[in-house]
Amino acid sequence: MQGLTATLIRGLWYVAVPGDAVKPGAMLPKTLLGEPVLIGRGNDGRVFALRNLCPHRGIPLHYGTFDGEAVACSYHGWKFGRDGGCVEIPSLREDQPVDLPKIRCGAYPCVERQGLIWIYFAKDGEAPSGSEAEPPRLPVFGHDVAPALKIVLPFPCSTDHAAFGLMDPTHAAFVHTSWWFKKDPTKLRPKEKAFEPSELGWRMVRHALPPQNIAYKVLGQNVSTEISYRLPGLRIEEIRGDRHAVVGLTAITPVDAENTEVHQFFWVSTGWAKPLRPLLEHLMTVFLDQDRVVVVRQREGLEAKPKLMLINDADTQARWWMRVKDEWLEAQAEGRPFANPLKPMVLRWRS
Ligand code: FES
Ligand SMILES: [Fe+2]
Fold first, then answer.
1. Which Pfam families does the UniProt record give (predicted)?
2. Within a domain: residue 142?
3. Which among 15, 29, 24, 3 is positioned nearest to 147, based on CA atoms?
């Protein structure tokens, strides 16, 4: 069972940061999947990601400068273009030819879609291809529509425990205890939801949401939702009414094997979210922080390496997460396409 660390999975696109975290001409160092990454945006607005280490003496490149075209190392001024190739070594004399493009700091495939910067972490340096040729496309909203709401919190836990928390249907009454959300843990109700396999994971089949809930009334009549979970740790919820739609994305991005960043985004088709943004982002942060506090406390226990358990049906999705992840790793090791191991199923619990 899962302890403090998780196996990190590769050959997939990860959410690195929201697009507006990196302005034109700026660079931002991050540790992602245990690797030093330097994200930047050129003067032309295009984003890129380099391995944040100078191949000369290993100093992180972010200590240097970026002129919107190339990153200059702070130690001897070697310059690297946005494809990771060296473009200049100031110390060279005219009679000292060096094949500059052969000197590389390394670059990651990096694209901006729907207001997010995605980075592809290859397994063996391969280019993104097949189902992962592009980052996952979120439904409803266009290529260039940025989320209206966004927050991120550091979770001091592995991606496995972050994922378990994300797909856990029975913790809310005990963990999310703010007055504006609170459910009475003494009044849990039976729930039954249909699930089916979907791309790189599974989804809770579309179902109607309670029409009496005021938050859903904004979307019009006949409000329904579909929630999908997929590698490498994305929860995508699409809530639709006859007037408006909301798409939520929670993205789990590993900092390293035992630390995770949890991003939460919402795209909305109405203008009402804009003036309410500070309030809504505050509420999102309070809510997500309740999940974060759980993993901080859980960590205390995991240090003692306890034996853990998964229980039906409440933990079936946690089990699916491990199965889908294991299948991804096996398919990669055997050099064959991913074959979804899940079957349609109805899960029942009380929450
Ligand atoms: S260490 Fe980067 S240029 Fe020398
Ligand atoms: Fe939660």
1. Rieske, VanA_C
2. no
3. 15
